[in-house]
Specification:
Elements: H1 4-13, H2 17-21, H3 27-32, H4 35-55, H5 65-68, H6 71-82, E1 89-91, E2 95-97, H7 108-118, E3 126-127, E4 132-133, H8 141-148, E5 152-156, H9 159-171, E6 175-179, E7 185-186, E8 190-191, H10 192-198, E9 202-206, H11 214-220, E10 225-231, H12 247-257, E11 261-266, H13 284-289, E12 294-298, E13 309-313, H14 315-323, H15 326-329, H16 334-348, H17 356-362, H18 365-385, E14 392-400, E15 402-404, E16 414-422, H19 427-435, E17 440-442, E18 444-446, E19 449-453, H20 462-470
Parallel strand pairs: 1-17, 2-15, 6-9, 6-10, 10-11, 11-12
Antiparallel strand pairs: 3-4, 5-13, 7-8, 12-13, 14-16, 16-19, 18-19
Helix pairs in contact: 4-6, 7-16, 8-16, 9-14, 18-20
The protein binds pyridoxal-5'-phosphate.
Length: 479
């Protein structure tokens, strides 16, 4: 082991940041990258060398000054530092509305509209006909009314905000009647009893976890009741000995008592999903036609648009909701409004299959099999051209994908995936190497294999996925 002075001497010999920056080998990098990023990378490299000298009592670390301060190593560090935090991900999980991966990808026409509106000035709050102040809340009302049959409609930041606002506006200080079978928690800490408390309403639970009957609601109504609330169970299903009260019956009970019925539809579907081979979901139009006075739903779940909360229903209720002070706090921005308008117009024009989320759900099995086979071939070719050591087994396999986004929890549409298995590296290790690429590739692990599901991949992404897999070696040991 080197003597103490020896370590001190080497520490003193470490170059200063300025000295490294004067290295002619860095001139090119300094010309291309912002100076702060190069300075930070150099500082970090010197610090790593210092730690290595101290920690290993004199050993210059695995790399040593020459390697750590090599322009190529510094360039890699600078590139990593300049990479944005929000990064593109290739979704190979097969979960179409993956909340962690940003839910619905936007349709191209919605993106174009978003770019046009957000890249310049717009009539967000200006009435171009009258040349006077307008309201952002008016733009999408007609389109939403047309698509849902509602008397009136509004848009807020997300569906959680929509539920909060509707409850606060229509029931503050009074009771809201909900079935015990619908007191849901969805991901990200949205728990219905907590939302109700935050909205300043009192929860009146009725029925049991598995069975709630019309009389349960009738008996709970009294002078303190403000409204009846029905909540879509979204991410779970109660099966077996069950009973729930449908919207038509509930709305009838509400009308008899002079109270409105509000339905939180969660995902909010505008078209009949049976056409997509999926379980039937009540559409917004059906729910309103059945008698719901107000419906709320998300913009980025089955609807396939941007994050937004949509409120549809009776004019009088919507007017009251719009007047509530919380409206300002949860109002949508121009980006969301433009993207939502672009998406809703596709529904109006009968072009909803151009919405990526719906298109992915509608992809026939034969097409998924073709895409998975094309991915397998691309991976095999990339592996043959590369130099990664070890053997990777690449096979096309039948799997089941998921809808996600708290929608259709029991739907498991048949799909096709490429299954990767390395002799010497675990599926978790492969997953880690693909996840940390740029663009990142996120698959899912089953039976010690990494699955890349064709349902959520596009043909345009296959080459990048194949390149990522080929670069994920070595396949004969963990690293
Ligand atoms: C998803 C969901 C919400 C929350 O919607 P966000 O748009 O994510 O805020 C509320 N209620 C139900 C029933 C849901 O499924």
């Amino acid at each position: 082991m080197p003597a103490e002075e020896d370590v001190n001497q080497r520490l003193r010999r470490l170059p200063a940041v300025d000295e490294v920056l004067r290295n002619p080998g860095l001139a090119d990098l300094l010309g291309r990258a912002p100076r702060w990023a190069v300075v930070a990378a150099v500082r970090e490299a010197i610090e790593r060398l210092r730690q290595a000298l101290r920690g290993a009592a004199g050993q210059a670390g695995p790399a040593g000054p020459a390697a750590e301060l090599d322009p190529r190593a510094l360039e890699a560090a600078v590139t990593a530092r300049l990479r944005p935090q929000l990064r593109r991900v290739i979704n190979a999980t097969g979960v179409v509305l993956h909340t962690n991966l940003g839910r619905a990808p936007l349709p191209a026409p919605a993106l174009a509209h978003l770019a046009a509106i957000a890249g310049g000035y717009s009539n967000l709050e200006y009435d171009l006909e009258r040349g006077a102040r307008g309201s952002r809340h008016d733009h999408l009302a007609a389109l939403l009314q047309e698509l849902t049959g509602a008397e009136a409609a509004g848009v807020v930041n997300n569906n959680a905000a929509a539920v909060l606002l509707v409850l606060a506006a229509l029931a503050a200080g009074r009771e809201v009647v909900v079935s015990r079978g619908e007191l849901i928690e969805i991901g990200g800490s949205f728990r219905l009893p907590d939302v109700m408390r935050a909205a300043g309403v009192r929860l009146r639970e009725v029925g049991t976890t598995n069975r709630t009957h019309p009389d349960d609601y009738r008996r709970a109504l009294g002078p303190d009741s403000a409204l009846l609330l029905k909540v879509h169970t979204s991410n779970y299903a109660v099966v077996g000995f069950t009973a729930a009260v449908d919207v038509a019956t509930l709305a009838g009970i509400g009308r008899a008592a002079g109270l409105p019925t509000v339905v939180d539809l969660g995902s909010g579907c505008l078209v009949d999903l049976a056409a997509y081979g999926l379980p039937r979901e009540p559409t917004v139009a059906e729910t309103l036609a059945a008698g719901a006075d107000v419906c709320t739903f998300s913009g980025d779940k089955l609807l396939g648009g941007p994050q937004a909360g949509i409120i549809c229903g009776r004019s009088a209720a919507l007017a009251e909701i719009r007047r509530h002070p919380l409206m300002r706090a949860v109002r949508p921005d121009k980006l969301a409004l433009a993207a939502l308008e672009g998406t809703l117009r596709l529904y109006r024009d009968g072009r909803e299959r151009e919405i990526p989320a719906l298109g992915m759900l509608a992809t026939p099995f034969a097409e998924l099999e073709r895409r998975a086979t094309a991915l397998k071939d691309a991976i095999t070719a990339a592996l043959a051209a590369g130099h990664a050591s070890g053997r990777l087994t690449v096979a096309v396999t039948r799997v089941q994908s998921a809808v996600g986004g708290g929608a259709l929890p029991l739907a498991a549409p048949d799909s096709c995936a490429v299954a990767l298995h390395a002799a010497g590296a675990s599926a978790a290790a492969l997953d880690g190497r693909l996840r940390t690429r740029d663009p990142a590739v996120v698959g899912r692990i089953a039976d010690e294999r990494l699955l890349l599901d064709a349902r959520t991949l596009t043909d345009a992404e296959l080459a990048a996925v194949a390149a990522a897999v080929a670069a994920a070696g070595p396949f004969d040991h963990e690293s």
